[in-house]
Design a protein that fits this description.
This protein is mainly α and 278 residues long. It is built from ten helices and two strands, in the order αααααααββααα. β1 and β2 form a beta hairpin.
């Protein structure tokens, strides 16, 4: 008489390490992280050249970057938030489920000794970690480049106050976290689409299309009533971290909006994973 073997569960820590190792070994992930790390360096060189010349440095936050090195990572993160960082988040979400399905590995994952909610949580953890790593990498290269090329004796805020170096560095880390949370919202939408399709390009198209449509709708004054539900609403307000004191209500509103997108996207993906057969 055959005795059924007990079903074992893989340790969660090992699964998380395996997921991160797999994601960070992909060439496109490494190339994307390298390009993002180069953005602050290129921006810092361009601003330094413009500051040494006779022409204008730029407008907006870029005018504060010259001679204010700790502002460079904030400026770079906000610039990358318009398209580069959302593209990274959408790509990771597309690879997480739709890419696995295309490669034929998702079916084996679904029959592995890991529950489907646990599997989705591991995928979401990998996406969130890599996107946060991308933001922190940009913050690090931006800070180093800003200090070397533009000076790093504290931070001159848009309120015309000067913060000590440690406080300015805290503003940079806060910006990286706020930007990462917004990218998590985009990635959650991509993960929901990824759970319903086998084609990663569809995930990219839907996620980036959502950003474009949200940007267009937010630019129409007659549709201001839609702003509270548009995913890109409040992205520009992240630049308020350069004010003194910090406008916490404005920053919190953007975090709550992104949190809603994360909750909705993850819930849709989970509902699909519980009924998916391959």
């Amino acid at each position: 008489m055959a005795i059924p073997l007990p079903r074992t569960k893989a340790p969660i820590a090992r699964l998380l390490r395996s997921e991160l190792r797999m994601m960070l070994r992909r060439p496109r992930t490494l190339v994307g992280l390298g390009l993002l790390a180069a953005v602050p360096v290129i921006a810092g060189i361009a601003i330094r050249i413009a500051a040494d010349g006779d022409g204008p440095v730029g407008e907006g936050l870029s005018t504060l970057v010259a001679g204010n090195g700790l502002m460079l990572p904030i400026f770079s993160l906000l610039a990358a938030l318009t398209m580069l960082l959302p593209l990274v988040g959408a790509t990771l979400a597309a690879d997480a489920l739709a890419g696995e399905s295309t490669n034929g590995t998702l079916r084996s994952l679904l029959v592995a000794p890991v529950s489907r909610p646990r599997l989705l949580a591991i995928k979401a953890f990998g996406i969130a970690t890599v996107t946060l790593l991308a933001c922190l990498l940009m913050a690090a290269t931006g800070t180093i480049t800003g200090i070397i090329l533009l000076g790093g004796d504290g931070m001159l805020t848009v309120s015309a106050t000067r913060l000590p170096f440690a406080d300015g560095l805290g503003r940079v880390l806060l910006t990286a976290l706020l930007v990462a949370i917004q990218i998590w919202g985009v990635a959650a939408v991509g993960l929901a689409v990824s759970a319903w399709t086998d084609h990663p390009l569809i995930v990219l198209s839907v996620a980036l299309g959502l950003l474009i449509v949200s940007g267009v709708l937010s630019a129409i004054p007659a549709l201001d009533w839609l702003d509270p539900v548009l995913i890109t609403s409040g992205w520009e307000s992240i630049g308020e971290v350069a004010r003194d004191p910090l406008p916490w209500p404005t920053l919190t509103e953007g975090v709550l909006r992104a949190g809603c997108y994360i909750l909705i996207g993850y819930s849709v993906a989970l509902s699909r994973m519980l009924t998916r057969d391959g």
